[in-house]
Amino acid sequence: MNHKNTRIQDVAREAGVSTATVSRALSNPELLSEATREQVFAAIRSTGYRVNRAARNLRTRRAGAVLVMVPNLGNPFFSQILAGISETLGDRDTSVLIADTGDRATLEKPLVDYFLDSQIDGMICLDGGLSHSEIQLFRDNGVSGRVVFACEWVHGLDLPSVRSDNVRGARLAVQHLHDLGHRKIAHVTGPEDNVLTHARRTGMLEERARLGLPAREEWIIRGDFSLASGRLAAHRILEMTDRPTAVFCASDQVAFGLISTLTANGVRVPEDMSVIGFDDIDLSEFYVPALTTVRQDRRALGARAASLLLNCIDVGEEGAACRRDPVILDVELVIRSSATRVSGA
Amino acid sequence: MNHKNTRIQDVAREAGVSTATVSRALSNPELLSEATREQVFAAIRSTGYRVNRAARNLRTRRAGAVLVMVPNLGNPFFSQILAGISETLGDRDTSVLIADTGDRATLEKPLVDYFLDSQIDGMICLDGGLSHSEIQLFRDNGVSGRVVFACEWVHGLDLPSVRSDNVRGARLAVQHLHDLGHRKIAHVTGPEDNVLTHARRTGMLEERARLGLPAREEWIIRGDFSLASGRLAAHRILEMTDRPTAVFCASDQVAFGLISTLTANGVRVPEDMSVIGFDDIDLSEFYVPALTTVRQDRRALGARAASLLLNCIDVGEEGAACRRDPVILDVELVIRSSATRVSGA
DNA sequence: TCTTTTTATGTAATCGATTACATTTATCAT
DNA sequence: ATGATAAATGTAATCGATTACATAAAAAGA
Fold first, then answer.
1. Which of residues 97-136 of B touch A (CB under 8 A)?
2. For the whole prediction, is pTM greater than 0.90?
3. Which residue of A4, A223, B61, B204 pairs with A229 in a disulfide if CB–CB is 3.0 to 4.6 A?
4. How many Cα neighbours within 13 Å face the side chain of A159?
């Protein structure tokens, strides 16, 4: 039995109704009488009919897919977010395309082309680093009403977004270090143009100020969320004459890079230096030492973003109805072993 | 300028040719005379025309997408493979759908439905754990000619695949440990029904035998590639009366779980116990200690799988032309710090 | 009983590109 | 010059589902 070529026509004939009726049975079953509805479903079953997506999409002017822009698929941070997204979108049988923005090879053509090529109905962007010209392109082509941001966002851009409470996360981290007796606290930031960098640094600086802790210019070390930047930060710290006793890192990956390099250079974590990360990726629990970090509810982040997007798509071009104020999810400090009571104090 | 509704008709009118000619300019430019071709392209540019994917797909009976089945997106091991895949498929403008097979929520409906719903042209499966009934479904529906496996494969299943030389990888690991003076070598396997588990264990056992090393039943510890199974393995080892001096793990994640737990229990790596992983994910270089491991060329793995699949799709249902013997890529031992010369020997 | 309204179903145009086949034009051998 | 062949382009059917509009049947109202 190969049902490859059953069309809606065949079902209609089998059920003794018109194609319109079959179509309605699928999309608006409540319009049909009990009897015909049953007949149609029986015919669908007996013929093994499946709707042809391309035909439906052509007629309805939908793509049945959304694109998710991920800054770096290799960062396990994103997987759970994607899971949340697929779960929500799967219910509405919309498929999920994934593009890695870090991987320039896959990103030759402007993003807006995906829309123009009617390949996608909308986009979830996990990358706040879109260029201004890119955003202007969205505007010009009237597709900005079908874009939502998750995790990251673009400063000053009035589009729907879902994010964690990054400022509070940073405050929790600093507070915790303070509670452990640390006074000289450093921070490894994300890349300078990133909104998360800004939020986390702000939270860190504010809390440090609030607690009346000392501030040194060199204790704020520029990074970029990567393992490698953690390593660089470690070298910077090793060279300092007035070393901090604790470091709050803008991501878990940075923390790993940092700890790994500190350890290799004889600075033990947490005995000689406490470290806190941000994200709580799966591995953090299994690092040596287990990483104290700020947890984001990644699955929820993805799910919310997806339903927000579906909303925007449904309300259509008008878009005004689409909520624009950011949804902010709470974070949680997960205490493990990489930060401990300050030694020799 | 909103080009939303330019159809091929509009271009044709603008260029003073028929729609057929425009279509040919896109798909078979060499059929047209230099002059008309230029005219058409000019018209395309001036109207901002973009082909409507749904219409093309409907007519050509293609989906323009392939599905990649990933056992666990959270495992950073897969990201580079995906990069390789997208790069290759992007050139043929085919989009990439990703399904996480570990995430049952997204996988309610049988895989074969993706084909039957004409949502995909083919599938790259990174998960060798497909059920027999699933595979039979592929057969029954004539879609098995458009499935290729990468990394993993299904034992006894005659479908194209790309994989690393797992047996050799395991041998290299054991050899290296032997070279470092280790004699009592343990192995943490993957899940029992997995083909990689089998290949790596086989390589390990064969090499251990070849080198005339002692074998104890309990030194082969069952795992499942996960961080958690590494932790379990560590507990098993800690309880042993006759402890191995080195452990070869079936994945880097297992190695991390193992090292983390050993360390937490006072067994230092590599001083008291050497550990080798498999995969060489990004993090391995930054673990503490930096992980000695077997590297797979993940990007190449993905790229080869993708081009193999395109091949299968192009030759069509006949499929016989499609190469069925596995492509096997070489692996490489990356020596870092987690395995060292045996102590007290 | 005869309108009027409601509910259920059918008819046929439509979405936009591709391509088999037909036709025209150019090239070439004789 | 002429018929044969090749190259370039056009005509129109087609892919398969959706839906505006039309119609028929049933229910409600007078």
1. 97-100, 103, 105-106, 108, 113, 116-119
2. no
3. A223
4. 28
